[in-house]
Amino acid sequence: MTRTERSAFLQPWGRPGALVAMLLALLAVASMAGRPAMAELSIDITRGVVEPLPIAIVDFAGAQNNEREYGRDVARVIAANLRRSGLFAPVEPQAFIQREIALDTPPRFADWRVINAEALVHGRVQLLSDGRLQAEFRLWDVFAERQMAGFSYVTDPRNWRRVAHIIADSIYQRITGEDGYFDTRIVYVAESGPRDNRVKRLAIMDQDGENHRFLTDGSELVLTPRFSPSLQEITYLAFRGGRPQVFIYNIDTGRQESIGDFDGLSFAPRFSPDGTQLIMSLSRAGNSDIYAMDVRTRQLRRLTTGASIETSPSFAPDGRQIVFNSDRGGSQQLYVMDADGGNVRRISFGEGRYATPVWSPRGDLIAFTRLHQGRFFIGVMRPDGSGERLLVDGFRVEGPTWAPNGRVLIYFEEEPSRAGGAGRSRLMSIDLTGSNKREVPTPTDASDPAWSPLIP
Amino acid sequence: MRVSSIAAVAAAVFLIAGCQTPPERSGTAAGTGATAQGAGVTSRGGADGVDRLSGPLSEQLAQVGDRVFFAFDQYALTPEARRTVEGQAGLLSRHGGVTVRIEGHADERGTREYNLALGDRRAHAVKDYLVALGISPTRISTTSYGAERPAVLGSNEQAWAQNRRAVTIVLSERVGS
């Protein structure tokens, strides 16, 4: 049985919270009957529209007050992550019949079945004598009455949010079969001021918007930050001396380092998947081409030639190919080449212009921005150009970036600007299926997001 | 439906008009910090860390036209743009000590990185013509702001036409040389 079949049954009545207990019990029985006894609790996330899985997340238990506070906060962060994924529907705690579950006691499954929680998470937080925080959790399949996962993590209490993200990742992984993406960060450009004199600063935050920090002070115009695979560094563009130049920002030291003073502009930088190279555009005498730079030796290799604009390069996850955009054929289109610049072939053939290609970390798809008849679109296609799908459109939507599991994209969306006021600019996330579009909240206007790999 | 098709035709006509005849700009250049303060030379630090000068020569440049405009996604100089650059070349040949920077810009209807490359092409289109007219390339530097510094706010063809531009800015001048 699939979730969708059961959900179709649920649909006419709406949310379980609105139902009387009797009806809930009936539904629970029907739900059980619909699933073969030994089937795993799972969500098939490759389907277009997935009915979110009802999951109960109980405040983690604790012996002391402060442990219980951590326990409540951890449960809250896990629930928020899972809800935002669009694949889970955390049950409101007010509906819980069993309010507390001790770590090593099986839950009262009937109490959870009756409120139609199909999955159940509970756990315990302990502050250890050495000052560290230990968080343990259990994930249960309520209807099969079977434990699906159980882990324990020990960390500095200041990292409690990361522990919650890691637990949410293992729940996501266990139920969807795909890696999670909650223990990640986002670097982006925070914007303020009028459009004709916009102040832009690098900013970094956890994927849920917490631990937000500005990295630059706004005195220089900055654009297009991207993480190194280790997350230790960010490569980006800054206007220094009135000229766009590529820099590397070290997150630990705060140091900003130019990668070299070139004759012309340098822009559109990205790290290679192994972190040893930067690919970017250099322009000489008004002609932009793609170059690869050895990060250690600073040696440059030219990968494209010709009078057309070649920019926005992005490596395949295996490092063997590069996708980029070029107007060599008369309009901006996507091309793939081998990492040495050879074997170039065009992959986009639709109407309009294609830009900002980004290879999925899974390797199976390339996300891009498409411009057609005055609208912007975010879409995906296979690396051979087949299977193009447009996920979202707008006055201006641009610059997709992939979650490390290749299932979710973040991009930015800008409203039209009017004389006297800038249109809002913000980060949005959307599923690969085109569903679950959400705003990624930021303290100021935002653009140019880049999603990190899982934190090592 | 009738209303929207009329609006579409009107917009199309306007768009063509905008492409063929970029708006005239003369006199004081807005957004470059040039002022009409007479003979004094003043400098103004921008967010990009570059001091821009405004003085007698900047004013003369503004009079011959400090900027040229481009059609959508194009970087070829129009006949009108060529006349403007010829005026700039005349001024620069009379003042041999002057160095300039050409800033290329794009309108907002492109992606960020492509717009940087397009602005760069536009700046070089002006530079190349100045050089062809006999100005030494060593006196001319170029940069691109992509769509980051629009001259006119607004998401309409009138604003876009004025934002697809290359602006020539006086970096240093030895007055009277």
Can you walk me through this structure?
- The complex is a heterodimer of chains A (456) and B (177).
- Chain A has 456 residues and is mainly beta.
- Chain A has two domains: 3-176, TolB, N-terminal domain (Rossmann fold), CATH 3.40.50; 185-451, TolB, C-terminal domain (Neuraminidase, 6 Propeller).
- Chain A has helices at 3-10, 21-34, 65-84, 109-113, 160-176; strands at 53-57, 88-90, 119-127, 133-141, 146-155, 185-192, 199-206, 213-214, 222-227, 233-240, 243-250, 256-258, 266-271, 277-284, 287-294, 300-302, 310-315, 321-326, 333-338, 345-346, 353-359, 366-372, 375-381, 389-394, 396-402, 408-414, 425-431, 438-440, 445-451.
- Chain A has a five-stranded mixed β-sheet, with helices on one face.
- Mean pLDDT of chain A is 90; it is low at 1-37.
- Chain B is an alpha+beta fold and 177 residues long.
- Chain B has one domain (2-172): OmpA-like domain (60s Ribosomal Protein L30, Chain: A, 2-Layer Sandwich), CATH 3.30.1330.
- Chain B has five helices and six strands; from the N terminus they run αββαβαβαβαβ.
- Chain B has helices spanning 2-20, 56-64, 79-94, 112-132, 157-163; strands at residues 42-45, 51-54, 67-69, 99-105, 140-146, 165-172.
- In chain B, a hairpin with a 5-residue loop joins β1 (42-45) and β2 (51-54).
- Chain B starts with a helix and ends in a 5-residue tail after the last strand.
- At the A-B interface, β21 and β25 of A face α4 and β5 of B.
